[in-house]
């Protein structure tokens, strides 16, 4: 009698709730049901789905007892589906459908925007707005201050020193290829160095790790010579492909340093374990060295062995710093102010969370402020 009572409770129970999952890309339906008092006798629930109310119901998944929610992620948007839930027990007497009727029909659909991520939209608009504002100001001729970057200020000094000593300039683009943003930034700095070298008639040597970088470097240096009116001094043979072997490249660069003894060495790009080998060799020959890399693991070696070091994003700001082009300059200023806003938000959030924790008082304003910046 007890078994029959439990079975009747399972079978008579109704109310399967189905809905499209909000704030998603579609192709997903949520199925929920209320657990009956016989849940302790159930092993798992089998979720059945059909494409018509009276059609064939096939299993699309299972959940263990105690669970009353399932997400069906194998559906098509705009197509109606019906669901049934079957409770399975080791004893067939306790098995049966949840409710006497299938669920209502439901269709999935994709949403254009996740409404739980308004914070991302608002911060994105603020950051983009700041960038556009400062680009507009730069184009209007409003002077925009960018702090001095000693490594870039020293470019002319390094080229001048090599010229006075009658020695060449060695420029190393690192071990990145043309898909590496640090290599692109390096070529921007190379353009400035090449222009100064061409103006002073100083030889510029550029050994590369990648043949595509070699071709790009040749074009950059050639254009630099043409822009300063010295196309005749451009020597393509001084910009060459060395090797794609890491330590073979380091050995080749060290050989060039010891043979040609450059007066200035520029190491700009992405570097690995070979960084210290080349920097120490350049230091031993008495060259003025200006290094720059986003590789944080190599920065200590450059700081120790080089005269100037561009740390991280200082490399990426080099183009704007050297060219003062309004589009680049405005982007840098907008990015700086966006960082200030983010830092202020973080500090305020930490202070509010600390105050709330110390006072052990739940404040709705503090909780809402913290939750608003919680990533979804």
Topology:
Blueprint: H1 2-12, E1 17-20, E2 29-32, E3 44-50, E4 58-64, E5 69-72, E6 82-88, E7 96-97, H2 118-139, H3 150-153, H4 155-165, E8 169-174, H5 181-200, E9 204-208, H6 211-227, E10 239-241, H7 246-260, E11 264-270, H8 274-284, E12 288-293, H9 299-305, E13 308-311, H10 313-316, H11 318-323, H12 326-359, H13 364-372
Helix pairs in contact: 2-12, 4-5, 5-6, 7-8, 12-13
Structural account:
With 376 residues, this protein is α/β, with parallel strands linked by helices. The protein is built from 13 helices and 13 strands. It has helices at 2-12, 118-139, 150-153, 155-165, 181-200, 211-227, 246-260, 274-284, 299-305, 313-316, 318-323, 326-359, 364-372; strands at residues 17-20, 29-32, 44-50, 58-64, 69-72, 82-88, 96-97, 169-174, 204-208, 239-241, 264-270, 288-293, 308-311. The strands form three sheets. The protein has a six-stranded parallel sheet with strand order 10-9-8-11-12-13, sandwiched between helices. Strands 4-3-6-7 form a four-stranded antiparallel sheet. α4 (155-165) crosses α5 (181-200), α5 (181-200) packs parallel to α6 and α12 (326-359) runs antiparallel to α13. The two termini are 50 Å apart.
């Amino acid at each position: 009698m007890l078994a029959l009572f439990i079975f009747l409770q399972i079978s008579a129970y109704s109310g399967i709730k189905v809905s499209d999952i909000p704030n998603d890309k579609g192709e997903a339906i949520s199925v929920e049901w209320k657990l009956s008092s016989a849940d302790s006798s159930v092993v798992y629930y089998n979720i059945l789905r059909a494409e018509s109310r009276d059609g064939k119901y096939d299993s699309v998944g299972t959940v263990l007892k105690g669970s009353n929610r399932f997400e069906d992620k194998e559906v098509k948007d705009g197509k109606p589906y019906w669901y049934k839930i079957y409770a399975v027990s080791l004893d067939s007497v306790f098995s049966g459908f949840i409710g006497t009727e299938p669920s209502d029909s439901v269709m999935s659909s994709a949403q254009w925007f996740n409404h739980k991520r308004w914070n991302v939209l608002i911060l994105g608009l603020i950051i983009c707005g700041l960038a556009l504002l400062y680009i507009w100001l730069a184009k209007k001729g409003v002077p925009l201050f960018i702090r001095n970057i000693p490594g870039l200020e020293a470019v002319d000094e390094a080229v001048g020193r090599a010229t006075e000593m009658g020695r060449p300039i060695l420029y190393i683009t690192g071990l990145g290829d043309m898909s590496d943003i640090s290599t692109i930034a390096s070529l921007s700095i190379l353009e400035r160095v090449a222009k100064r070298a061409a103006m002073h008639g100083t030889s510029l040597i550029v050994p590369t790790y990648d043949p595509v970088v070699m071709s790009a470097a040749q074009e950059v240096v050639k254009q630099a010579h043409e822009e300063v009116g010295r196309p005749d001094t451009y020597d393509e043979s001084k910009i060459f492909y060395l090797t794609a072997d890491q330590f073979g490249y380091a050995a080749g660069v060290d050989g060039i340093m010891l043979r040609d003894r450059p007066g200035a060495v520029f190491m700009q790009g992405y570097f690995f374990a070979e960084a210290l080998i080349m920097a120490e060799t350049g230091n031993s020959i008495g060259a003025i060295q200006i290094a720059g890399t986003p590789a944080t693991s190599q920065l200590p070696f450059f700081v120790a062995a080089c005269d100037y070091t561009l740390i991280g994003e200082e490399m990426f700001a080099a183009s704007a710093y050297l060219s003062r082009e309004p589009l680049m300059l405005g982007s840098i200023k907008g990015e700086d102010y966006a960082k200030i806003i983010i830092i202020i938000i973080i500090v305020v959030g930490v202070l509010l969370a600390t105050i709330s924790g110390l006072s052990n008082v739940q404040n709705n304003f503090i909780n809402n402020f913290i939750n608003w910046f919680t990533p979804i």
